[in-house]
Design a protein that fits this description.
The protein is an alpha+beta fold and 506 residues long. It folds into four domains: 35 residues; 70 residues, Beta Barrel (conserved putative lor/sdh protein from methanococcus maripaludis s2 fold), CATH 2.40.420.20; 153 residues, Beta Barrel (Elongation Factor Tu (Ef-tu), domain 3); 178 residues, Helix Hairpins (Orthogonal Bundle). It has four helices and 19 strands. The strands form three sheets. The protein has a six-stranded antiparallel β-barrel with strand order 2-9-12-11-10-13. β16 and β17 form a beta hairpin. α3 runs antiparallel to α4.
Length: 506
């Protein structure tokens, strides 16, 4: 009995010792061995790892490889931003008046020529009516003046003609009178002189006869009387010249009077002509001013309706029905925006990854769950160093602006959002796990060449997800070893081709 108990105790003791050892063995087979053969584990490259054991056994090391090939990649670059208007049109009224109706609302798309608002027409229609009446009165006044001008001028011309005729008549009369008077006076003087000479001769004969005693002295007395009479007659004839000259002077005064009348009539005609020309010019000027006033009134009437000068989005309405639109105000009644784009703010270190023409995906806070396609249309190389307060998610400090035209969406300015730029690129790539060493863009990889592991220096470019761009050092078709850190140059290897999925760049 005692012996049986001792045997049982030994069995239990052995079980307690052997069971953990067996369990450890099982764990080593199930856990440790896979770890030693897993290239991703740190034990893989140890002295107990798969490559080391295969190397000690003189066997080829089985490795995973990928073929170097040109791959089409997506380089996703993201940046916050907001919608902005490339062009903004302020709508103002050209006339002042009371707003009757506003047709446009904020957020509405309008076309060129579409009515935006209308002013009350009645005051402007009254101005048109007044201007039209003033124009009719000016036309009537001009016609009346034009109709009286010929009669007024004809009367003055007739007066001038009559004055000219009177002057000519006076001139003719004066010349005739002067000619007749001069002849008559000369004839009278000559006749008196002849009679005086005759009387003088007879007187001498009488005196001679009286001395001879042929006649008496009384006969001489009679002859002396006749001679004295003849002298008086000659004196009287000579004095008639002076009277005729006085008469001639009187006739000349009459002529001068007629000439002055003619000059006066000429001056009156010229003055009347000048006054009538002035009155006609003033009447025509008044008529033209009235036409302009009517045109202005009609133009103001048409301006009571304010139309959109271009296509655009109504981003702001600053006036409502019943309010006064002041044409002198600097504040716009409405604001239209054109060509609203999404303006992204990208870090300067990533600016080189974006160029004009790149496609982009825009997501807006105002449209949750939706995305919109766009294209880069402008890059602003100027640093945006202004920090905008109140703009969530946007810090413009030391960033650059990128302008994206968004397709199939009419955005108002000020919408917040985020953009991702998709850049298609074709390049030689290898998985990131194939790089054994990397420093300053240069590294090393293991290449499977004729069943051997061969070290190769490589110059790398950008990283695309879990792949790295190869710039120099590899050729298409070459096979690089994945997770080759446990390999030594010259190791015999058995390459196995695998496919490595591309991880997305977040």
């Amino acid at each position: 009995m005692i012996q049986s108990r001792k045997l049982l105790s030994r069995s239990i003791l052995l079980s307690l010792v052997i069971a953990p050892i067996g369990l450890m063995g099982i764990l080593s087979v199930k856990v440790l061995l896979p770890t030693l053969s897993d290239p991703q584990s740190r034990f893989y490259s140890s002295g107990f790892g798969y490559p080391a054991l295969q190397r000690m056994a003189g066997k080829a090391i089985q490795v995973d490889t990928v073929t170097v090939a040109a791959t089409s990649l997506e380089n996703n670059v993201g940046a916050p931003g907001e919608s902005v208007a490339m062009q903004q049109v302020d709508v103002r009224s050209l006339v002042s008046g009371l707003v009757q109706k506003v047709y446009a609302a904020e957020g509405q798309l309008v076309r060129r020529g579409q009515p935006l608002l209308e002013l009350q027409r009645a005051p402007f229609q009254d101005q048109v009516n007044t201007a039209s009446n003033n124009l009719a009165a000016a036309e009537k006044n001009l016609k009346a003046l034009q109709s009286t001008v010929p009669d007024r001028l004809n009367n003055l011309r007739n007066n001038l003609t009559a004055s000219l005729a009177r002057l000519n008549s006076a001139e003719t009369r004066l010349a005739k009178i002067d000619s007749l008077a001069e002849k008559e006076i000369q004839n009278n003087v000559v006749a008196a002189e002849v009679r005086l000479q005759t009387a003088q001769q007879k007187l001498k004969q009488i005196q001679f006869l009286e001395q001879q005693g042929a006649i008496s002295k009384f006969q001489r007395y009679d002859m002396e009387d006749i001679y004295a009479t003849r002298k008086r007659e000659l004196l009287a004839a000579q004095q008639g010249i002076i009277g005729t000259q006085s008469q001639q002077f009187g006739n000349q005064d009459f002529y001068i009077q007629r000439r002055n009348e003619l000059i006066s009539d000429q001056q009156q005609l010229e003055l009347a002509q000048a006054n009538l020309d002035r009155d006609l010019a003033n009447a025509r000027l008044t008529l033209e001013n009235r036409r302009i006033e009517l045109q202005q009134a009609l133009r103001d009437l048409t301006r009571t309706v304010v139309y959109a000068s271009t296509d655009g989005l109504v981003s702001r309405v600053n006036i409502h029905s019943g309010e006064v639109a002041d044409a002198r105000s600097r504040d716009p009644l409405l604001t239209l925006t054109q060509n609203t784009v999404f303006k992204a703010y990208i870090d300067q270190a990533r600016l080189g990854a974006v160029k004009i023409g790149d496609m982009a995906t825009v997501r807006l806070v105002a449209y949750p769950g939706q995305s919109f396609r766009g294209q880069v249309i402008q890059l602003n190389p100027t640093v945006e160093n202004e920090t905008i307060k109140g703009k969530a998610g946007i810090d413009r400090q030391y960033t650059y602006s990128v302008w994206i035209a968004v397709n199939d969406l009419k955005m108002p300015p000020g919408l917040q959002g985020y953009v991702q730029f998709q850049k298609g690129k074709t390049a030689l790539t290898i998985p990131e796990s194939a790089v054994t060493h990397l420093s300053a863009g240069e590294g090393m990889v293991m290449v499977a060449l004729d069943g051997k592991a061969v070290i190769r220096k490589v110059k790398f470019g950008r990283t695309f997800g879990n792949k790295r761009e190869v710039l120099v050092g590899l050729k298409p078709g070459e096979r690089v070893v994945l997770n080759a850190r446990a390999l030594n140059p010259g190791d015999s290897i058995t390459p196995e081709s695998v496919q490595v999925p591309i991880a997305e760049d977040k």
